[in-house]
Fold each of these.
Amino acid sequence: MLTRLMLTAEMVGTAGRSTWSIAEILGASDASNRRDHICSAMLLFDGRMVQVVEGKRLDVDRMLRRMQADPRMKGLRVMADTPIHSRLLTEAAGYCHQPAETLSKVGLTDLELLTVRDVEAMLDYRQAA
């Protein structure tokens, strides 16, 4: 059985705000996620992050512990933790390159009041694109 987590957090300092920082985050995520057979998709916008992660429970829990210890983010919150039969995601470290457009398509202007339904709508938009 697989698990899907929906996570959100506030990025600390310059984390996730520059091309270099985003590349560093994605590089580390890609390496760890490939090793642990995890698929993920991340959106960074205005100092906040939302991420969907899919994988085996043990692997997802290990990744969550790494994220909780990561000084580049604070206020990490699990929005949803759902058992799934198959993955929606295919990339080890997918990244949304057009966050403002994605938010607009689902009727949001920021990630402050993000709901599970909003994240699901973003996943649907990503799948349709």
Amino acid sequence: MPPPRTAADEAAAAWSQALSLMEGMTSDRTGKAITSLRSTLAVYQRRRVPGAAELARRAGEALA
């Protein structure tokens, strides 16, 4: 039986889906959302939330 999902796991899954949906979009609003996401992800990375580092990498690529 897999461990129960935490709120952080749920957030990471939602953000991952959001990043996937934002692929190819270049609006100012999308950029601001991704920038905000990256600052929040920094906290999750320090807490070593699974998937946070990969999500931060994807967010960085989306802004590049």
Amino acid sequence: MGHWSWRIGVSRLVCAAVTVWTLDKGLVEGRVGESAAYEVWHGDFLVGELWDLSVDQPWFLCRFVPGVGWSELSPLFAAQEEARRQHFPEQLIGAIAAVRDLDVELRPVAGGEPIRPWMIYLTEGRASFRY
């Protein structure tokens, strides 16, 4: 049993390293994929694009390229990121609710049904979401 546990732990570590390497490689070399995977919309405003999608269950990880609507919403996402950085202290919980209440929509560039994530983090360069 211990042997299998060790192998699973190593496997998860390798997957995490590959995911981080892929995201960092994309940030250094520019746009890795041929097109964005999703567009991030808030109402009629394009907030940005999500590129180079990978999975680290339960999170989807990608690179965020800001769009026209980013400047208006970036302070809300910055406050949410600060709450996460401080391990969600009670006085900053409102920042998480403010982002959740935005009701952003992820529209697949290749077509298909939009996704409404129940949690999304956006910073210049990186993004993660769950739906």
